[in-house]
Write a structure and sequence with these properties.
This protein is α/β, with parallel strands linked by helices. The protein has helices at residues 8-30, 45-60, 76-88, 107-113, 125-133, 141-153, 172-181, 196-201, 266-285, and strands at residues 4-5, 35-41, 64-65, 68-70, 94-97, 161-165, 185-189, 205-208, 226-229, 233-236, 242-245, 258-259. The chain has 2 domains: 30-115, 3-Layer(aba) Sandwich (Rossmann fold); 141-268, 3-Layer(aba) Sandwich (Rossmann fold). The strands form 3 sheets. A 6-stranded parallel beta sheet has the order 1-12-9-8-6-7. The relative contact order is 0.17. Bound molecules: NADPH dihydro-nicotinamide-adenine-dinucleotide phosphate. Residues 142, 165-168, 170-172, 189-193, 196, 209-212, 230-233, 266-267, 270 line the site of NADPH dihydro-nicotinamide-adenine-dinucleotide phosphate.
Length: 295
């Protein structure tokens, strides 16, 4: 068996297209466009690339960017001041603070200072609590992307055995909560899990969010299972160049029924879901119904 490849790039492009149409409708019918503030602190090269890609996507979707770039030396009070200004600005509907932050700044304190209604990353404890309680709120983008991709393979996730490897607050835990909300039977595995291959072999749907290059092997996979590979790992390639690989080894394609590639799987969904979240946040703040864009 060779797995069918779940084309995250195409699915993300479709979602971005729907967001863009909805943004144009908002401008035409309601006279405003969603505004999004991406806050970058310092000069982390990976963060700079992410932020550039996000800003490009924001503009392409017809949204208004309010990007802020602060020096590495900024202190916590100054960053909290900026968050307070953005919270108070009615033209800003979504706020994203690019992580990691310099060590003099407590990330948890900054995240908690963002207005939960503008928290398009879905990392605020209020939104994490809403997700855990089954209440509507803003949901983290990468986990949301994973669910959209899984639902391209399975019209319904009800009753599926789902295994999530990883329990971080930004990926593993919210993916598990979303799968539970979809009525899957969910197991969350982590570094202390005993006999991880055997746990994985139970899965109809396996989500790998570990951060270890190609750790999941072919014989961990139940034949025909759907595998969502969240990992982004830089490894040495030929000629001293680095290449990006996932948490899942290439041989998994021989056992799985469907598989997300790396790159081109979950990665592109993250930005598409960020735009969808900003659109939702803007509608919520204006008292409008949530847009029907299938996310
Ligand atoms: P974290 O490092 O925060 O979490 C990793 C999780 O994997 C932890 O829960 C850890 O367990 C678990 N783990 C580590 N080693 C093992 C092991 N040997 N066996 C079983 N479990 C293990 O990472 P993130 O959740 O932030 O990210 C995970 C991956 O997803 C990374 O590669 C990251 O780059 C990628 N990512 C991709 C995104 C995208 O847009 N596609 C967005 C965000 C992340 P424990 O809790 O016990 O330590």
């Amino acid at each position: 068996m060779t797995a069918s490849i779940i084309d995250g790039k195409a699915i993300a492009a479709e979602l971005r297209g729907k967001v863009t149409e909805a943004v144009h409708r908002l401008l035409r019918d309601r006279g405003f466009v969603p505004g999004i503030a991406v806050v970058l602190v310092g000069q982390n090269p990976a963060s700079e690339v992410y932020v550039r890609n996000k800003s490009k996507a924001v503009t392409e979707a017809g949204m208004r960017p309010f990007d802020r770039h602060l020096p590495e030396s900024v202190n916590e009070a100054e960053l909290l001041d900026l968050i307070a200004q953005l919270n108070a600005d009615p033209a800003v509907h979504g706020i994203l603070v690019q992580l990691p932050l310099p060590k003099q700044i407590d990330s948890q304190k900054i995240i908690a200072a963002i207005d939960p209604d503008k928290d398009i990353d879905g990392f605020h404890p209020m939104n994490a609590g809403r997700l855990a309680s089954g209440l509507p709120g803003l949901v983290p983008c990468t986990p949301l992307g994973c669910i959209i991709l899984a639902k391209k393979v399975h019209a319904s996730l009800t009753g599926l055995e789902a295994v999530v490897i990883g329990r971080s607050n930004i990926v593993g835990k919210p993916v598990a909560q979303l799968l539970l909300a979809e009525n899957a039977t969910v197991t969350v595995a982590h570094s202390k899990t005993r006999d991880l291959p055997a746990v994985c072999r139970r899965a109809d749907l396996l989500v790998a969010a570990i951060g270890r290059a190609e750790m999941v092997r072919g014989d961990w996979i139940k034949p025909g299972a759907t595998v969502i590979d969240v990992g982004i790992n830089r490894v040495a390639g030929q000629g001293g160049k680095t290449r990006i690989v996932g948490d899942v080894a290439a041989e998994v394609a021989q056992a799985a029924g469907a598989l997300t590639p790396v790159p081109g799987g979950v990665g592109p969904m993250t930005i598409a879901c960020l735009l969808a979240n900003t659109l939702r946040a803007a509608c919520m703040q204006r008292g409008l119904p949530a847009p029907n864009i299938g996310s």
